[in-house]
UniProtKB/TrEMBL annotation:
Species of origin: Wenxinia marina DSM 24838
UniProt keyword terms in alphabetical order: Ligase, Transferase
Protein name as it appears in the record: Asp-tRNAAsn/Glu-tRNAGln amidotransferase A subunit
Pfam family, one: Amidase
Span of domain Amidase: 26-431
Top EC class, one word: ligase
Length: 442
């Protein structure tokens, strides 16, 4: 049964369908692994064994009677600890929400449960999901897959670690500026950020609702497609048969290609060469609207985050990690006029992006511009923390600012991902392209 811990969600689902995997035994395998793993308390904020066993028992009964609800019926998932779980604490990685127990499941968890998935538990995250590093001195900092001294990436840090360390087949996280794709890339996983609003945010603790998205961290593009469909309650997408022949992929002439660490730069060049060898046409693309869009990020993100969090922060000064507190409270100084003008300008820039990229199928860049920093180098906060956090989220933020679906794929170089940014609203089209790219990279 240990091999189940390294299998993809899709493979486990097929095993259940074929009668070779019992959902109850599968759930127990992962619950036992969580209980025995020396780093489990840094990965899971809390496991949910009673819920998992009840859901697995129901899935096993459906499997026996031929009434499975979908390809992931009986497959366990972990959930970032900002998705509400009825009767189970949801704390968003912050002391501001300690012992908060919601009455109902988040909308996506409710839909996934109706689809037959099994909830293993809630995973740690960066405090209030407002950091790409994954360092959280308030609750826990999950381990990095490759380097015990490095940060894991965030904010869906525990989500990525749960999959990387074989404590879940796949995970559900959130992505406001890169929070699915950064930890997925640093853990050599697939991470998918759908188009904003493709999945409902009801019951997910917000950061910036204009940018918040929900997405899977998993072992394959097939898994990403299945989990996306599960969360949406939609028909399973067919990602087979795609080809890179005739596909036009753009490398942008923009800051996302600047100042790359040597390993991500080399991994990106090698991955692009493999995609070209597999039939893709690679073009260079001028996208001058990127830089001014990035200039708006501080205003738009901080103001919206402060609007929701201020009523919780102001009565409890001093309980947050200072860097997160400083970042979110910067929104207090943003005027309503500047916020509205910022959104008006960003909409213009989004139209410019659409016009500039209309002739390509996806825009490529390294998922993260740097390798995971050491915890010791950023734990004190200050300029080192700020610089590392901004550079970590720099490339992934592109898709959030321009409202695009985006997926990171492993390149084969540890902790170096390749990101494909698609066309707004064309999530399944991007997943089919990503499946073809996955085969090309292999």
């Amino acid at each position: 049964m240990d091999e189940w811990r390294q299998a993809s969600a899709a493979e486990l689902g097929r095993g259940i369908a074929a009668g070779g995997i019992d959902p109850e035994a599968l759930a127990e395998t992962f619950l036992d692994a969580i209980g025995a793993h020396p780093e489990a308390s840094r990965i899971y904020a809390r496991a949910t064994p009673d819920r998992a066993r009840a859901e697995a028992k129901a899935a096993a009964a459906r499997a026996r009677t031929g009434t499975r609800r979908g390809p992931l019926d009986g497959v366990p998932l972990s959930w970032k600890d900002l998705f509400d779980t009825a009767g189970i604490a949801t704390e968003a990685g912050t002391a501001l929400m300690k012992d908060r127990v919601p009455d109902a499941d988040a909308a996506v968890l409710r839909t996934a449960t109706l689809g037959g998935s099994v909830c293993l538990g809630k995973t740690h995250l960066s405090e209030i999901a407002f950091s790409g590093l994954g360092y959280n001195p308030i609750t826990a900092t999950p381990p990095n897959r490759h380097d015990p001294d490095a940060v894991p990436g965030g904010s869906s840090s525990g989500a990525a670690a749960s999959v990387a360390f074989g404590l879940a087949p796949a995970a559900v996280g959130s992505d406001t500026g890169g929070s699915v794709r950064v930890p997925a890339a640093w853990a050599d996983l697939v991470g998918f950020k759908p188009t904003h609003a493709a999945l409902p945010l009801t019951g997910a603790v917000p950061l910036c609702t204009s940018f918040d998205t929900i997405g899977p961290l998993c072992r394959s593009v097939e898994d990403a497609g299945l989990i996306f469909a599960l969360l949406a309650g939609r028909r399973v997408p067919d990602l087979r048969g795609g080809s890179l022949d005739g596909v036009r992929l753009a490398v942008p002439e923009a800051l996302v290609m600047d100042d790359l660490d040597p390993s991500p730069a080399a991994a990106f060049d090698d991955a692009v060469a493999r995609l070209e060898a597999a039939g893709a046409t690679i073009v260079r693309l001028s996208v001058p609207m990127v830089a001014p869009a990035y200039d708006l990020a501080g205003i738009l993100y901080s103001a919206e985050a402060w609007a929701w969090w201020r009523s919780r922060i102001e009565p409890s000064p001093g309980v947050m990690f200072s860097e997160i507190h400083e970042r979110v409270s910067a929104g207090a100084g943003v005027s309503a006029a500047d916020f509205v003008a910022g959104w008006d300008r960003l909409r213009e820039l989004r139209r410019d992006w659409t016009a500039a990229t209309g002739g390509v199928d996806a825009v490529l860049c390294p998922t993260v511009a740097l390798m995971p920093p050491k915890v010791r180098d950023i734990a004190g906060g200050g300029d080192a923390y700020k610089a590392a956090n901004l550079k970590t989220l720099r490339n992934t933020r592109l898709a959030n600012l321009f409202g695009l679906p985006s997926v990171t794929l492993p390149t084969g170089t540890p902790a170096c991902g390749l990101m494909l940014n698609g066309v707004a609203g064309s999530d399944l089209r991007l997943l089919r392209l990503a499946a073809a790219a996955e085969r090309g990279l292999a």
